[in-house]
C-alpha cells in the first residue's frame, strides 16, 4: 500500500462549511460550548517511532455566541490505514473506524454519516 496523502501534510481544512451534524455526543451539556456550522480541521503529528497521531476538530461556539468561535476535538489518537478505512486508536480496546478516500490532492472522510472533503490548509 502506498503512503496515504493524509500523511503528506500536517494541517487540513474542510472544503466547505459543514452544517451541525447529529454527533450523538453530550459534551455540550457539561461545557459552555456547542457545535455550529463551519469548517472542520485535521491536525496530524508524528510521534517517536514513526507513529502518526491525528486530531479531528469540529467547529464550535461559546454558549452565548451565534457564530463559529473555536473548535472541539471530536477524535484523537494513533492512526492506522487500510485501503478504504482510517482507524483512530483513542484507547487500546476498539478503534474508531472512518471511511477514507483520496481524490487527487484531497481526502474525504465519512464522519457522523456525512462525507466531508478536506484540502491542505495553508497558513494565512
UniProtKB/TrEMBL annotation:
This is Uncharacterized protein. It comes from the Bacteria. It comes from Tenacibaculum jejuense.
Amino acid at each position: 500500500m502506498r503512503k496515504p496523502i493524509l500523511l503528506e501534510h500536517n494541517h487540513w481544512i474542510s472544503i466547505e462549511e459543514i452544517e451541525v451534524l447529529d454527533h450523538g455526543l453530550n459534551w455540550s451539556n457539561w461545557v459552555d460550548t456547542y457545535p455550529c456550522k463551519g469548517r472542520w480541521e485535521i491536525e496530524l503529528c508524528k510521534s517517536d517511532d514513526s507513529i502518526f497521531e491525528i486530531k479531528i476538530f469540529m467547529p464550535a461556539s461559546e454558549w452565548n455566541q451565534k457564530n463559529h468561535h473555536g473548535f472541539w476535538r471530536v477524535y484523537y489518537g494513533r492512526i492506522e490505514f487500510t485501503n478504504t478505512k482510517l482507524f483512530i486508536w483513542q484507547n487500546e480496546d476498539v478503534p474508531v473506524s472512518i471511511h477514507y478516500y483520496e481524490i487527487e490532492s484531497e481526502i474525504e472522510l465519512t464522519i457522523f454519516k456525512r462525507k466531508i472533503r478536506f484540502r491542505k490548509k495553508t497558513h494565512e
